[in-house]
Amino acid sequence: MATIEEYIPIVGQSVIDDLRLIAQKLQGKIIQNINSTAVGGGVAEILNRMVPLLKEIGVDTRWDLIRGGEQFFEVTKKFHNALHGSSEIITQHDFDVFMATSQTNIDEVVIKGDIVFVHDPQPIALIKKKSGNKWIWRCHIDISNPNQKVWGFLMNFIDKYDSAVFSAPGFSPRLPIRQFLIAPSIDPLSDKNKDLPQDVIDGVLRKYEISKNKPIVTQISRFDRLKDPVGVIEAYQQVKRYIDCQLILAGGGASDDPEGAKVLEEVKERAKKDRDIHILLLPQNDIEVNALQRASTVIIQKSLKEGFGLTVSEALWKGKPVVASNVGGIPLQVKHKYSGLLCHSVDGAAFAIKQLLNSPEYAKKMGENGREHVRNNFLITRHLRDYILLFLSLFHGEDVVYL
Amino acid sequence: MQELIRAKEPFHFHTRLHLSELTGLRATTLGQLLTLIKTVPGASIYHHTHRFLQQHQNLSPEPPNDFAYWVTEILGDDELGEKLASINVIQYSTIRNLRDKIASTIEEHLQTNAFAKLRFASSGEEFHFMKSVSFVLPTGCSAMDLKEFSENLRKITVDSIYFHIFEARLRLERGENDFSNWIENSLGDKDLANEISSLDPYTQTLENLRRTLVRIIDKRMGL
Predict the structure, then answer these.
(1) N or C: at which end does chain B have fewer Cβ atoms within 10 angstroms?
(2) What's the predicted TM-score (pTM) here?
(3) CB-CB: which of B19, B136, B157 is closest to A386?
(4) Which CATH architecture is the domain A198-377 placed in?
(5) Better pLDDT: A215 or B175
(6) In this structure, are B39 and B122 located in the same domain?
(7) What percent of chain B has pLDDT over 70?
(8) Which ipTM value was assigned to this complex?
(9) C-alpha triplet A179, A140, A65: angle, nearest 5°
């Protein structure tokens, strides 16, 4: 795992110096993260990177887990879906199951943090243990259109916290406590984002029989209707009438997801007459995803709904021009005509792809702007800085804080 | 090189990091935008007129303020978008005055353009009001003369330049940027102070601004 020093060539010495400087201001404070799982899922992935890096720069950071049985996690999965806006039937029994497990955790989890950083709804009831220390609730979910019954239930706990954190402005509700915007981030040194030698990229293209001689348009995402893979094919078909190009649709998620398998079949059906459409199942193959992104001429993310959409930052980091839907956290990453092109429809996506394929200089400039935008705003070092500032904000209510 | 004047007081370079605070307030129409612009905290007006400078520090010309961007790209009102983008921020010495100017620009546009009231953002494209929380801290770098000042200017972060040029003048209402203040009051060089004050920092990237400042100061030292 990379050390903080290894980020210096990417973000500059001064960014790391600033991190060390502000980290000193937390000396003597213990930060205790609490979530529900150590592996699997985005939160665990972030904490696995953040906790060692925070420790390395001198912030005493701990990480604890709550426990829960199958029933509890079934209920929290329902909560998760309902908060995302899916129609779930939530019963009193579900709330009872949630509270019973929460009570066990309240009895068992030892609180040692001066700042307790609670991630997502599963451990939210631990706030009942608050006594003189500071508590933050970190919501990683898109709650722009939540099920009101679940949200109302969670509000019983949220308003006891000192602050809340959301990933996009659109997820922000009116709350009686302070709330902050902290976007997620990508790790430029991970397999998915690190620089790759050209022969590795060429090897992946050869493996999947993708030509280097025609422009490549790529969408990386699981086969899910919300990622609109069929819409991507339709956009590609409009472009293909004028520009001889290839399309790659690559992602995982079909094997354990019956809906995903169905979507994959539909996509294959739509693509079967065209040898220039490459549909690739790549579950957990970060190097290959990285290579495909780097080999692409244009990267598309035509989602209908998106939590944050970090695949956009991954593409921009590789200097690629991006066409992406104006949903979720995507407009934070793409400023239309500055660091990519936003679209709202198949026609719009097709038009934007054509523009970029026909104007390589314009596309190059977008990609360059996008890479710098990600360097400044969506790398893990910015995420670390925001978390440290968030912790410091708990001790300062003013808008201008002199440290 | 000319003989260097020693300053009465050292210049201490500070830096500024920021966190975005959410307000939960959002606008769908120009009318709602106007109402909220008039009532949100000054830290919110500051955020939406200065966020681009730091978040898009590599772009030149950088995108305009958030209000102009939303009015143009989301509401599709190019005329008002242009008026908002061209508000000369350097002309205002307080957030209060800047807020009044933005509000009156929208108000006048609403009065004279009947269709402006009918425009609205679709779901998911609302204007979300946020605030900037600034954390100001000393960098440990300081200067007693122009040579030391210029050397430091080359190596400090763009966040530090941002703080002394933009935040000190407008948000902290010091009337003038910190560099000009020190050069005039502590070094007694009014001409150089004026030359720096007369730059329009809003129309260049922070790195360009750094290069311009170094060039002006080096020239002053006869380099």
Answers:
(1) N
(2) 0.89
(3) B19
(4) 3-Layer(aba) Sandwich (3.40)
(5) A215
(6) yes
(7) 95
(8) 0.88
(9) 105
